[in-house]
Structures are given as C-alpha cells and as structure tokens.
Design a protein that fits this description.
The protein has seven helices and four strands, in the order αααβαβαβαβα. The protein is mainly alpha-helical. It has a two-stranded antiparallel sheet. It has a two-stranded antiparallel ribbon with strand order 3-4. The N and C termini lie far apart (about 70 Å).
Length: about 140
C-alpha cells in the first residue's frame, strides 16, 4: 500500500511541474486529481444489494371471463390476462402464424379472424387491443 501511495505522489509531482510552468490554475487541477485518486484507492468496495422479487400487480392476476370466440383457442375457464396472452402466443407459434417477413405481424387463421374482427393480418399491438374486447 505504501508503494502505491508513493507512486501516486511521484506522478502527481511530475504532472504539477510540467503544467505549473504553463498555467498556475492547472497546478490546482492536477493536485485535485491526485487527491481524488488517493481517495478512490482508500474506499472499500461496496457489495451489491440483494434484489427482492417484485410482487405481481393484482389487476393482472384477476381471472377474466372469456368470450366463446376466444374460448376456441385458450379454453373456456376464466383466466388472468397474462395467461390468456401466453396461451394465445403458444397457439400462434404452434400453428406458425407469425409473418415471416415482418415478425410483428400475425397472420390470422379461421379461429383468429373471429377475434381480430375479420382481419387477415394484425400487428402484435393491435392483437392485444382486440383480445381485450373478448375479456370481461
């Protein structure tokens, strides 16, 4: 530790000598940097705080009634909104309905057309909006 301090002082002195001839204000700045380095070397390393798991929002966990059109895909039992979304995505991936060129778009089959209001293709963002109409 003593050798490290001596090395820092030596470097600071050399820097002060070089800049002192050019600018008097630079001498103060270099001295401040040396002091900051010294202080940084003395500080103990802090341990990362333990992360706590976030509690889920109760509104998302509330079971919703499902319309008959949506029940063909996710089942007729009341489910939370999050589970409906998961099951809908499982259905989309299982039947390969995601657009190849633009992955944000969903190509609807007969079951999905009933949910999407007759549209043959919708974006992911439109899909959530349309699915909400089938939940109560």
């Amino acid at each position: 530790m003593a050798t490290k301090k001596a090395a820092v002082k030596k470097v600071a002195k050399k820097a002060v000598k070089k800049t002192a001839a050019k600018k008097p204000a630079a001498k103060k700045a270099v001295a401040k940097k040396a002091v900051a380095k010294k202080a940084a070397a003395k500080k103990p390393v802090k341990k990362a705080a333990a992360k706590t798991k976030r509690a889920p929002n109760p509104a998302f966990m509330k079971a919703m009634n499902i319309s008959p059109a949506l029940a063909k895909i996710v089942g007729s039992k009341p489910l939370p909104r999050t589970e409906v979304t998961k099951k809908l995505w499982d259905y989309i991936k299982k039947n390969n309905l995601q657009d190849k060129a633009n992955k944000r778009n969903i190509n609807a089959d007969e079951n999905l057309k009933a949910i999407f209001g007759g549209k043959s293709q919708v974006s992911m963002f439109e899909m959530t909006k349309m699915v909400n109409k089938h939940l109560s």
